[in-house]
Each structure stands twice: as structure tokens, then as C-alpha cells.
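Bumping my old thread because nobody answered last time. Still need a sequence for this structure:
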């Protein structure tokens, strides 16, 4: 058995009558995030209803792999009724083997939309978020596997308390 096979911990694959490597490196990274609070929240319910808010979020890149995960700079997009209204930039970094890397990011949401009037009157605005992170898992400094993680969430911004609540992700 070659050195490479020993390092990859190959096991027999009886269905195909050949050796195959364990697939620990095939696990996708996870990118949960949490919006801590909205700052500088202003709304206007005049002829042109508007919402403006800055926020602080904690982004965690969880790497379940047996190699480090280097990911590119990406962003979290904030969406109101199908239109992007803000974003937060997540910097390029590396998550170590079987570890979670946490980043604190800030961003802003700004929109003028006629449909905001009813949400502002109700006291809460529902936003969606989307993020996709691309990178590579490096195993034993020899093998590189491209991996990406995607996260879609909905959340409710309560205007009176300036709190982001009811975050649901898939």
C-alpha cells in the first residue's frame, strides 16, 4: 500500500472493488449569523416611506472538516420585498480544522419603498438575508477541495425597540 493511501486512511469499497478515501473533507462549512441590534434606526412614513438602519452582526464560519478552510471575502445581502436594500461585508479569512471562526461585522440598510408605509404603521419590518461563502478546504497541504456554504434567513425589525428578532434560517 502506498504512502498516500495510508495518509488518506483508505478503506475497501466492496461495491466497486476498489479503494476509496474517507470523505470527511466533503462536509460543507456552515455560516450562521446573528444580528445583535439595530443602531441609528430612522423611519419616515410620509409620501415616500423610508427606513434607514445601521447594525452589528456576529458571523460564525463553522468548519467541520479535517483541514483548514480558507474563504473569500463575501457579503450578507439584506432584502426587502425582493430588492436588495443593504449589506455587510465579511472579510477574507481562514477557519482552522474543526473550529469556528467568529467575525463582528457592521452594515447598513437603507430603502425608500411605498410598501413600507403599512409595515412602519404596524411597528415592524420583515427583512430577508442571503449570503454565500466560497472557499477551499486544504487537507495535508496537498489536497484542495472547493466548498461553499449558503444561508437564507428572515427576520423582523421591531421599530420601537430597535431590536432584530424572530430570525429563522435555512
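Sorry it took so long. Here it is:
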Amino acid at each position: 500500500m502506498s504512502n498516500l493511501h495510508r495518509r488518506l486512511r483508505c478503506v475497501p469499497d466492496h461495491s466497486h472493488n476498489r479503494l476509496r478515501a474517507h470523505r470527511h473533507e466533503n462536509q460543507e462549512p456552515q455560516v450562521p449569523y446573528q444580528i445583535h441590534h439595530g443602531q441609528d434606526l430612522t423611519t419616515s412614513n410620509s409620501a415616500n416611506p423610508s427606513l434607514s438602519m445601521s447594525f452589528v452582526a456576529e458571523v460564525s464560519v463553522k468548519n467541520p472538516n479535517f483541514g483548514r478552510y480558507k474563504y473569500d471575502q463575501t457579503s450578507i445581502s439584506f432584502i426587502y420585498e425582493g430588492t436588495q436594500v443593504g449589506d455587510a461585508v465579511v472579510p477574507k479569512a481562514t477557519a482552522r480544522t474543526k473550529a469556528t471562526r467568529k467575525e463582528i461585522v457592521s452594515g447598513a440598510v437603507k430603502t425608500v419603498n411605498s410598501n413600507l408605509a403599512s409595515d412602519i404603521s404596524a411597528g415592524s419590518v420583515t427583512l430577508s438575508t442571503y449570503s454565500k461563502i466560497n472557499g477551499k478546504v486544504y487537507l495535508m497541504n496537498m489536497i484542495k477541495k472547493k466548498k461553499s456554504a449558503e444561508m437564507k434567513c428572515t427576520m423582523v425589525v421591531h421599530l420601537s425597540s430597535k431590536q432584530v428578532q424572530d430570525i429563522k434560517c435555512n
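Confidence is low (pLDDT under 50) at residues 1-25. Let me know if any region looks off to you.
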